[in-house]
Write a structure and sequence with these properties.
It is an enzyme of class 2 (transferase). The chain is of the alpha/beta class. About 25% of the residues lie in helices and about 20% in strands. Strands 1-8-2-3-7-4-6-5-9-10 form a 10-stranded mixed beta sheet, sandwiched between helices.
Length: about 200
C-alpha cells in the first residue's frame, strides 16, 4: 500500500496507520534525509529478521542501524561517551550514521556484532513515526540491487512496485535523494569516517 504523507505537516491519521502496521510487526519503506529506507520496529526481532532476509543481510556479520527520534534515550540502545555525545549533538538531526557499542537494552540480534548504527535523520516524517511508536526503527537503505553502481531508488511509486508483497506499506514523502549518509565510527576514541556520504561533520 502506498501512503502519501507530507513532511511539513504529517497527517496524524496517516501516521496512525503506519504505527499500527509497525506494532503488528509489519515492514515499511519511508523517506529519510538521504535515501529511501526499509524498516520495522527495531525491538521486534521477527520483523528485523524478515528485513535481513529481504535484503540478504546476515545480522551475525553486518552492523544493523536504528533511527531514534533524538538523543534523549540514546543510552538505552548504545554506550556513548561524552566526546561522542558532543559530536552527535552537533551534527544531529542530519545525514549521519554513528556507530557505537550496543547497550543491554537491544535484542540479542544486534549484539552479535557488539555495535549498532544510530541515525537521527533530518526528516519530519520518519521522526514523527519514531516518536509516536515509542521505539526506534531498524533502518536499511533501499537500493536497486541489479545496478552495478549503487543507484538508490528515488521514486516511491517505483519502490512500491518493486517491493509489492514484500513490505506492508510504502510512504510517499516525495522523491528521495541519491546520496547515502556519512558513517562515523565512534567505537574508539579516534572517531573515523568510514563512508563519506551526504553530511559534512562539524
Amino acid at each position: 500500500m502506498l501512503l502519501k504523507i507530507y513532511e511539513e505537516n504529517p497527517n496524524p491519521r496517516e501516521v496512525a496507520k503506519v504505527i499500527h502496521t509497525l506494532q503488528d510487526g509489519g515492514l515499511i519503506i519511508y523517506p529519510t534525509d538521504t535515501v529511501y529506507a526499509i524498516g520495522c520496529d527495531a525491538l521486534n526481532v521477527r520483523a528485523v529478521e524478515k528485513i535481513c532476509q529481504i535484503k540478504g543481510v546476515n545480522p551475525q556479520k553486518s552492523n544493523l542501524s536504528i533511527i531514534c527520534y533524538d538523543l534523549s534515550n540514546l543510552s538505552e540502545y548504545a554506550k556513548v561517551n561524552n566526546a561522542a555525545f558532543k559530536l552527535m549533538k552537533k551534527n544531529l538531526p542530519g545525514p549521519f550514521t554513528f556507530i557505537l557499542p550496543t547497550s543491554n537494552e537491544l535484542p540479542k540480534i544486534y549484539k552479535n556484532r557488539k555495535e549498532v548504527g544510530i541515525r537521527v535523520p533530518d526528516n519530519n516524517i520518519v521522526r514523527t513515526i519514531v516518536q509516536e511508536l515509542g521505539n526506534p526503527l531498524l533502518t536499511m537503505s533501499v537500493h536497486d540491487d541489479d545496478d552495478e553502481i549503487l543507484e538508490y531508488s528515488t521514486d516511491p511509486e517505483l519502490i512500491a512496485e518493486k517491493y509489492n508483497g514484500r513490505v506492508d506499506l510504502v510512504i510517499d514523502g516525495g522523491y528521495g535523494g541519491l546520496e547515502p549518509s556519512t558513517v562515523v565510527d565512534c567505537t574508539t576514541d579516534e572517531f573515523e569516517i568510514v563512508r563519506q556520504g551526504k553530511g559534512q561533520l562539524k
